[in-house]
Design a protein that fits this description.
With 217 residues, the protein is an alpha/beta fold. The protein is built from 7 helices and 9 strands, in the order E-E-E-E-H-H-H-H-E-E-H-E-H-E-H-E. The strands form 4 sheets. It has a 3-stranded parallel sheet. Strands 1-4 form a two-stranded antiparallel sheet. The chain has a two-stranded antiparallel ribbon with strand order 2-3. Strand 2 and strand 3 form a beta hairpin.
């Protein structure tokens, strides 16, 4: 990294513009250097490198432990607005929480069933309508519904019919689908995702919604 340094005891003033740092006097560009005593110490060798143990199969829970976990999850569900079983119940919860504020966003989210965008290998339909992120594979997640609601509400003034939107890192495709509903009937959303497996999964969900596809790169 190159840094700009001014001469010592200088009263010179610089200003920031949209093109970078400008000045009426020449700046001295120097690379930061370490003194011998300041050089960072090398990291010790990793004793476990290249010798990772295979993951052990998960032990079956004792019935009492399983019951305690179910009680805990039930309490957590109440704190998060109760357990929901449909997309309409999920959107109603977001409206009550004042996260969805406009009728257009509410209608768009009602038309895009989150249950179609989860990965059955990592989550169940019962998980789909809870306000939490869910794994969809390849180390990625579908964001929590409240995050989608916040994004859509912030962008709603710009997501008007006929607009064009680029969604970089479209992942599950859920947010792209919601934006497409807001832009209909003649808008256009291009979702770009670099993970091929996620593109396939998103395309399957989007085609169920209405013949839409996501772009991969």
């Amino acid at each position: 990294m190159i840094v700009a340094q001014l001469p010592p005891n200088s009263s010179h003033r610089s200003r920031i513009t949209n093109t970078g740092l400008t000045s009426s006097r020449n700046l001295v560009l120097r690379r930061p250097s370490y003194r011998p005593s300041q050089r960072p110490k090398p990291l010790p060798p990793d004793p476990g490198a290249g010798s990772a143990k295979p993951r052990q199969p998960q032990q079956q829970q004792h019935p009492q432990q399983q019951k305690q976990q179910e009680v805990h999850m039930g309490t957590l569900g109440k704190l998060m607005g109760g357990v929901r079983t449909s997309q309409d119940e999920l959107v109603d919860y977001l409206i009550r929480s004042k996260l969805v504020k406009t009728a257009r966003v509410a209608e768009a989210m009602r038309q895009v069933d989150r249950g179609k965008y989860i990965n059955p290998a990592f989550a169940t339909m019962a998980d789909a309508y809870q306000d939490r992120p869910l794994a969809i594979g390849e180390g990625q997640t579908i964001s929590a519904p409240h995050m989608h609601a916040v994004c859509l509400e912030l962008l709603e003034p710009f997501l008007q019919p006929g607009a064009r939107v680029l969604d970089v890192g479209s992942g599950s495709g859920y947010l792209s689908a919601c934006m497409a509903k807001l832009l209909s009937p003649d808008g256009h959303v291009l979702g770009v995702e670099k993970v091929p497996e996620l593109v396939v999964h998103a395309n399957n969900a989007l085609q169920v919604l209405g013949g839409m596809t996501a772009g991969g790169c």
